[in-house]
Amino acid sequence: MPIATVNPATGELVEEFAPLTKDQVNRRLARAELAAATLRATGFDTRAGWMRAAADLVETEAAQTARRLTIEMGKPIAQARAEVLKCAHAMRFYADNAESLLADQPLADPGAVRASAAYTSYEPLGIVLAVMPWNYPMWQVIRFAAPALMAGNVGLLKHASNVPQSALYLDTLFERAGFPEGSFQTLLIGAAHVEDVVRDRRVAAVTLTGSEPAGRSIAAVAGSEVKKAVLELGGSDPFIVLPSADVPAAARTAVATRTMNNGQSCIAAKRFIVHTEVYEEFVEAFVAGTKALRVGDPLDEETEIGPIATESGRRELAELVDDAVAKGAVLRCGGSAVGTEGWFFEPTVLEEVTAEMRLYREEAFGPLAAVHRVDGIEQAAALANDTSFGLSSSVWTTDPDEERYLISRLEAGAVFVNGMSVSFPELPFGGVKDSGIGRELAAEGIREFCNLKTVWKG
After folding, report:
1. Rounded distance, CA 237 to CA 183, Å?
2. Residue 161's pLDDT is what?
3. To 10 degrees, what angle do helices 44-60 and 77-101 make?
């Protein structure tokens, strides 16, 4: 895949970029090694000042950055601005809290280990490689970079090849804010060259957000080198609606969660599991809301659904719909490409999806929803867990017993009750099963790339 910006709203090539040579990559690794030694020696106050300055830059440049995101991957401009501003919030969160999150933890009773004092301390690992996807070109990177840099690590970014302009913006952002040269650098390289960087002795760890196959590949390489890896992979999140739920609110939220970011979000609900008592009411409202969405130019402030980011992504969506319909699924709305320019796809709702259909098992990365009818809470939980993924989940009920039951039984990294799954800097983010290993954000995220050192004093 060439490293290029191709506008998904028009299909036009905007700009193509030459990949770095091996010598250029090596020089960047050398700069990163020097920066790691410098950054490790700085205090939290100094790093926090630089991080706040970087957040100021992000906010000041939000309009231009948002437009870049939209042109590169097609998200509606209003959502692009929201993504950029969310990045600034996360940067300030870690600037304000990194020192306390990484404070030494004294053992309450050191005598129990025959010591006068004992504690644990968090220290940076050094150079961390981040392999990042195109769907949130800023947010996915910043939610790694902000905690990593505040912990005293340095970052190398291998971004998706279809968002090179976003990658190059991030390449200079932190240095412009005052961080030492080499603290955060972009590597414009193809996927085939990532293994060499992971294996480089100077790289201490790797984090990847992306597909399950990509995660397995990177984890295998990191494991063979005995290096830490954090993986945030795919999701096929359940959205469970029970009879006590506020059904109109659930249906409105269902439309929003399934179509945010043009439906291209790992954490979006994709399987809507609805109790038979409220099934018809929910589906009618869900379909009506989906049909009402405005599809069009993502740079138009009124647009709610822009194009799929890649032509191959749109083709995969169409194949999932065709397979499901051919095997008996009921198409309630959408299901087709839109227009002759760009890679637009109608927001789509399917009913009567069964296990024989690809859509039952595969992650649909676009505005494609599968609705399932169930007769009880046990069936809802079983269907929700009948997937290889386990990223997040959403439960709609006003019954405390139902809430407790599902919180304890859903196999997922998160459960959102009466709301849509979102990520917050203040809460850990990540999944189980094929949705990944490790956590991002909150205290857990900043500690992932630290050496937890035990200190004992006699």
Report:
1. 35
2. 98
3. 170
Mean pLDDT of 212-235: 97
Mean of the per-residue pLDDT values of the chain: 98
- Please choose, from the candidates 357, 317, 359, the residue with its C-alpha nearest in 3D space to the C-alpha of residue 338: 317
Q: Is the pLDDT of residue 1 over 80?
A: no
Whole-angstrom distance, CA of residue 127 vs CA of residue 157: 11
> What's the pLDDT tens digit per position in 122-152?
999 999 999 999 999 999 999 999 999 999 9
Q: For residues 361 and 320, what is the distance between their CA atoms, to the nearest angstrom?
A: 11
- For the domain 4-232+433-457, what is the CATH code? 3.40.605.10
Does 444 qualify as catalytic in the annotation? no
386-445 pLDDT, tens digit per residue, is: 999 999 999 999 999 999 999 999 999 999 999 999 999 999 999 999 999 999 999 999
Going by pLDDT thresholds of 50, 70 and 90, the confidence category of residue 340 is confident
**What are the pLDDT digits (tens) for 89-122?**
999 999 999 999 999 999 999 999 999 999 999 9
Domain(s) labelled CATH 3.40.605.10 in the chain stretch across 4-232+433-457
Report the interhelical angle of 377-385 vs 400-409 (nearest 10°). Answer: 30
**Which of 232, 304, 351, 363 is an active site residue?**
232
> Is 232 an annotated catalytic residue?
yes
As annotated, the residues of the chain forming the CATH 3.40.309.10 domain(s) are 237-417
Residue 172: half-sphere exposure toward Cβ, Cα within 13 Å: 7
Alpha-carbon span 187 to 219, nearest angstrom? 19
* Contacts of range 352-361, beta carbons closer than 8 Å, 24 or more positions apart: 352/328, 353/324, 353/329, 354/327, 354/328, 354/329, 355/386, 356/327, 357/323, 357/324, 357/327, 357/329, 358/319, 358/320, 358/323, 358/324, 359/320, 359/321, 359/323, 359/324, 359/329, 361/387, 361/388
Domain 237-417 = CATH 3.40.309.10 = yes
* pLDDT level of residue 301 (50, 70, 90 thresholds): very high
* Rounded Cα distance, 349 and 458, in Å: 66
The CA distance from 428 to 90, in Å, is 13
Specify the 3-state DSSP secondary structure of 393: coil
> Quick one: average pLDDT of 187-211?
98
> Which entry of 266, 362, 363, 403 is annotated as an active-site residue?
266
Q: What are the CB-based long-range contacts (under 8 Å, 24+) for 288-296? A: 289/251, 289/252, 289/254, 289/255, 290/255, 290/258, 290/259, 290/333, 290/334, 290/347, 290/348, 290/349, 290/367, 290/369, 291/333, 291/347, 293/255, 293/259, 293/347, 295/338, 295/344, 295/346, 295/347
